């Protein structure tokens, strides 16, 4: 499965940013050893249901340190028969179609 998620703690930086808190969450994901990717809006992580959800939980906890509340947006792609490598393969399939045009 691939999960794309975004965390947003209520206690923001003085300029309204949340980069410090988000970086704690991203660090948890990167240290998990699971395939992952981070963009300006979401972090994606690939693996089995239980391992991915455990990492998301730890990432939310890390982002929420010192905050009374954390918002979580989560989207999951659950596709039986496609166990690994889909984080890059999905993008590669789209790029292949673009090259055909």
TrEMBL record:
Recorded GO CC terms: cytosol
InterPro entries: MTH1187/YkoF-like, Thiamine_BP, UPF0045_domain
The organism's place on the tree of life at top rank: Bacteria
Domain Thiamine-binding protein: start-end pairs: 3-95
Family per similarity comment: Belongs to the UPF0045 family.
Annotated protein name in UniProt: Thiamine-binding protein
Lineage of source species: Bacteria, Bacillati, Actinomycetota, Actinomycetes, Pseudonocardiales
């Amino acid at each position: 499965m691939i999960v794309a998620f975004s965390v947003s703690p209520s206690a923001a930086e003085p300029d309204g940013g949340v980069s410090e808190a988000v970086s704690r969450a991203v660090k948890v994901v990167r240290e998990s050893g699971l395939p992952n990717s981070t963009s300006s809006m979401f972090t994606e992580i690939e693996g089995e249901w239980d391992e991915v959800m455990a990492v998301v939980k730890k990432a939310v906890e890390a982002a929420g340190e010192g905050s009374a509340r954390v918002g979580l947006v989560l989207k999951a792609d659950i596709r039986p028969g496609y166990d690994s490598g889909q984080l890059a393969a999905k993008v590669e399939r789209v790029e292949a179609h673009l090259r055909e045009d």
